[in-house]
């Protein structure tokens, strides 16, 4: 469980994080989304006990980040966007070093290291210097280090960065498995599809402040009530779309350059689409397909980053 109460962090005159409050219950994944410099990494560093907040507080796995910093660090697993490995070491020696720091008995840590090397398909390279490893291999070692002491809380900053598609899917499956084992997980990512697939809740941060929060479904539903409709035609309209007598509830009516596609926005596609079809049939147009598309998480994120959404506490109180 993570319980964050109004944490703020300043670096001189720069307000990096401004009054963030949120919770991450056991068995859930929270995705933090935002541009570089939005405050995601600073937030994670504070919650992992690596950086003291200027004000506010948080409980991480029941430990106060101010008064019980050492206990916080011991109870979390952290993967940063830059692995930061000791590259002159081998994966086995590196993990053994950290297992010793965590106070794991030799037999226990050797067994866990073997399990993790197998899990991340690193057994063939376990005795090789990490200096020659690819970014993806280094990321696997960093993930293994974060899981070594079986922490209850995980902070994952771009965990699939540098991984090939198969390895990335493997990591996403692992995150789902960790969630099922009742871990609290904070995921920082630029991959909106990944966030939508993995996160129970999403927080979008801009300039250190929360601008939106909610489940993926809530964020999409709260973005707009309009639906985008795409109509594909068998042949171009002889006189284009300007001669169509369409309902006033249609917005942003557009026609593709080749004349084979029509796009528009409407709040009531069930009522509007049949009227559009009637108009097209009246002029002899043949419809190949009609598809509707509601706001995507990318649309929500883009609006938030373009200052179209003011900072708010929550979509739902």
Automatic annotation (TrEMBL):
It comes from the Bacteria. It holds the Pfam family ABC_tran. Keywords: ATP-binding, Nucleotide-binding, Transport. Residues 2-232 form the ABC transporter domain. One of its GO terms (molecular function) is ATP hydrolysis activity. SUPFAM superfamilies: P-loop containing nucleoside triphosphate hydrolases. InterPro entries: AAA+_ATPase (IPR003593), ABC_transporter-like_ATP-bd (IPR003439), ABC_transporter-like_CS (IPR017871), ABC_transporter_ATP-binding (IPR050763), P-loop_NTPase (IPR027417). The keyword Transport applies. Belongs to the ABC transporter superfamily. This is Multidrug ABC transporter ATP-binding protein.
